[in-house]
Amino acid sequence: MKIVLPSAFISRTKMLLGNEWDAFMQALQEESPVSIRINPVKKASLSFESSEKVYWASNAFYLNGRPSFTLDPLFHAGCYYVQEASSMFLEQIVAKQISQPVKVLDLCAAPGGKSTHLVSILPEGSLLVSNEAIRSRAFVLAENLVKWGNPHAIVTNNDPSVFGQLEHFFDLIVADVPCSGEGLFRKNPESIREWSVEQVRFCAERQKRILANSWKALKPGGLLIYSTCTYNREENEDNIVWICQNLGAEPTEAVHRFFPHQTKGEGFFITAVRKKEDSEKNKESRRNGKKRDHHLHRIPQELKMGLTDPNSFVIFPESNAFIAIPSTHEEDYLFLKNRLKIVSAGIPLGETKGKDMIPAHALAMSNFLSKPSFPILELSKEASLKYLRKEALSDIPVHFPKGYALVSYLQQPLGFIKNINHRANNLYPQEWRIRMNIQTTE
Hints:
This protein has helices spanning 7-17, 21-28, 73-76, 90-97, 113-121, 135-148, 160-163, 190-194, 197-214, 237-248, 301-305, 330-337, 361-365, 381-388, and strands at residues 34-38, 50-53, 60-63, 80-82, 103-106, 127-131, 153-156, 170-176, 218-228, 249-251, 256-258, 268-275, 313-318, 321-326, 342-345, 347-353, 356-359, 376-378, 403-409, 412-420, 423-426. With 442 residues, it is α+β, with helices and mostly antiparallel strands.
């Protein structure tokens, strides 16, 4: 289907592109490329046909076509993330600018592409706070980070203005701000119908408010990585000038623009600025300075056994549940817990129900799962999809151990079951279940 663009967009973007306009229009009529980024920890045997590597991102590839990711159990196991290639350029800026462990805020993070990327590329010991203001989208963000399996992340559901109260807490803020979506015209034709000059101006002002409201959370000398998926100057270069003139920042990175006729990806803009050292008095947010006495609580031994390195975590009782926070982040977690609406953090381990201890799905997804601690039932693809649709599993082997067990596909954990007398209770999260009911074959 031929893409028809608004006349105002054409005149504005022609001024931006000059004699490249015809090549740009030709690219918009072509099919959007499909790209994935592989989880570097979950070593899976993927069967996709790859045409080439995304050369600005490690572990990222273009696919020759678009398969049904929903019907691939390895997708639900967090073995890879489907992400637009241009936005993966974030990795280049992080690699160039960040060399020591940092505290990072991904300010507008749903559905999780940049957050899952960040936890894979940040220096070891870094903490990621991944925020989404819209509650329903925050749960999608949490789901994707849980599947990715890295425990050095906290997912929050707060308005950006709340972060302004965390004075000088973060070394890096990544702001992939809501925008007019011009760079997605090829991928999402609905964005064409929603576009207008007024919408561009509205987005530019909203972006300034988001940045101004959260600016105090960045330490002097800290880095802001700013990105949009749009082309116009108002939401891109003009906003960078505004940040430097009004918030006390200075450019530290070249402006990077992605156009579909120049690179294999959608439209994208990204750059970085640094907060001036003398822009504010350099002090960190006050901490509680008081760690919880975890030894006063009885921590079930089976939860500790579920982790490969339990001594590197602090286990917090939360009502009837338990979560494991990396020890290096204990103080920061307690500080943030009292100030933000936390959706998920670290590794949710499980909850008690009577005398029973039910393991959490997040433990099955974690990169720190101790697989030898549980019996493992390897499933076929057909049985895996039944499990992911939260259907009952049949044909449990007669001698398979009773109690809680992992189910896996191609040796990648999918979640837990409870084996009871030759039948198994499916413990896959109800809200995550596959709703497609297409028959598949091996």
